[in-house]
């Protein structure tokens, strides 16, 4: 950035709605011939010009760092493992229960009465 950073430089819109950015502004912004820019209308009478690279950097700066971010797949797998452990523990308790055999017998009797 040069000495015009943060300063206002006035220029006019010419024929057919064209304008030429003053050299001091282009230099301060790092615009050279062929630089791709994006114009964003911020409101009535306000336009923001940014290079495509600046937009890309701004977007990526707002994205979470993959190395620091929590891995949702790992979280889901961990929760699933916890669920399986709880389910397995309940199955072990049911199989160790003295009522478990009776429950199977009652179920078989019910199915028999239903003709199944």
Automatic annotation (TrEMBL):
GO molecular function: DNA binding
Coiled-coil regions, chain positions: none
Ranges of residues in domain SpoVT-AbrB: 8-54
Region (Disordered) residue spans: 87-116
InterPro entries (UniProt xref): SpoVT-AbrB_dom, SpoVT-AbrB_sf
SMART domains cross-referenced by the UniProt entry: SpoVT_AbrB
Compositional bias (Low complexity): 87-97
Pfam families: MazE_antitoxin
Name recorded for this polypeptide: Unannotated protein
Origin species: freshwater metagenome
Lineage: unclassified sequences, metagenomes, ecological metagenomes
């Amino acid at each position: 950035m040069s000495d015009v950073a943060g300063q206002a430089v006035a220029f006019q819109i010419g024929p057919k709605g064209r304008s030429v950015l003053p050299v001091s502004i282009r230099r301060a912004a790092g615009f050279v011939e062929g630089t791709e820019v994006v114009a964003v209308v911020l409101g009535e009478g306000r336009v923001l010009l940014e290079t495509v690279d600046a937009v890309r950097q701004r977007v990526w700066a707002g994205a979470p760092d993959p190395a620091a971010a929590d891995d949702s797949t790992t979280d889901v797998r961990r929760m699933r493992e916890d669920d399986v452990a709880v389910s397995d523990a309940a199955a072990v308790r049911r199989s160790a229960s003295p009522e478990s055999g009776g429950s199977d017998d009652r179920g078989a009797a019910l199915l028999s009465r239903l003709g199944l």
